[in-house]
Amino acid sequence: MKLISKLSWLFVGGLFIFSGLIKINDPVGTAIKLEEYFDVFAADFASFFLFFKPYALYFSIFLSALEIILGVALLLRWRLRPILRGLLVLIIFFTFLTFYSAYFNKVTDCGCFGDAIKLTPWQSFSKDIVLLILIIILLATRRYLPETKTARVAGALVALTAIFSFGIGIYAYNHEPFIDFRAYKVGNNIPALMKPSSPLRYKYIMAKNGEEKEFADYPTDSTWKFKQMIAINPEDGPKITDFNVWNDQGDFTQEIFNGNKLLILVQDVTKANTKSFAEINKLIAAAEKSNKNIKPIILTASSSQDFDVFRHETNISAPYYYGDATVLKTMMRANPGIMLLKNGQVAGKWHYNDTPDIQTVDQKL
């Protein structure tokens, strides 16, 4: 039992730290996932949950940092009883969220490990059940985990962990994530990721006389009734399925992939940082004069009426097109954000707080 307790201690502490670091690396992405939960709970339980949506970012940073702090405190064996109780409360909360998502098919990706590791709702729930069992084991076998004899040193390390964790979250919010796990990270080729890496293969679930059977090829026997088609190699499918650019004249997606494009992503004009456009406008003007033949383009999810008002307020001058709001949030966490494309390949990404000069942009091409 002592060995089980030790292994549980290492596994739980390590996993909470890992999970917290992944999420706090991208606090905006975690906040978006929390907003999904608030919308679901508001629709299924009470509209009261919508009150929390404006504070999703604060919850994101706090919960992510809390995972790291509790994980470090557990591994240091500092104040074990309250730490284990805190972990128990946290995992019960997460277990409820993942069960609700899985059973009612509400949020198809819990965001447990951000964009780094994608889990299905039932996989997320299973992971939380395992953690719940291990934490209960730790509470029952606490005698095998003596508290640290250097409580002051451990307490100081936990305090430093808290400062470090919140610092990472605040910095990552004001810039891009330290590590980009998204499909639109620098170096990725967007049009290539819109295609399957190999032809998708399927199996067919058919039924006849109350019997179900799998077929590698669609049966020619018409007495079999189709029930379901399942991809055998879904991991080989397109990594990007919803990138699309258009305006009132039609679809311009392929045009975006030709040549050097400086994309200014404005997800929502009502929430965009308007002060940043002084520097962005300078970059646009310089890009138009660059010998690298850079074409500035604005992508927005706002309506034409709202964007026209916004365009005059910020004095931004460049052709603008529309994109899906979720896609723009995935491409860039900042609003506005800057993305440089070279024949569809992401050559650079910048938060509005890190707006580059034209020399930096030219060097990327």
TrEMBL record:
Organism: Adhaeribacter radiodurans
Pfam families in alphabetical order: MauE
InterPro entries: Methylamine_util_MauE (IPR009908)
Topology with respect to the bilayer: Multi-pass membrane protein
NCBIfam families noted in UniProt: BT_3928_fam (NF045576)
Main location: membrane
All copies of domain Methylamine utilisation protein MauE, residue ranges: 4-140
Lineage summary: Bacteria, Pseudomonadati, Bacteroidota, Cytophagia, Cytophagales
Leader sequence segment: none
GO cellular component assignments: membrane
Entry protein name: DoxX family protein
Bilayer-spanning residue ranges: 7-24, 55-76, 83-104, 124-141, 153-173
UniProt KW Transmembrane keyword: yes
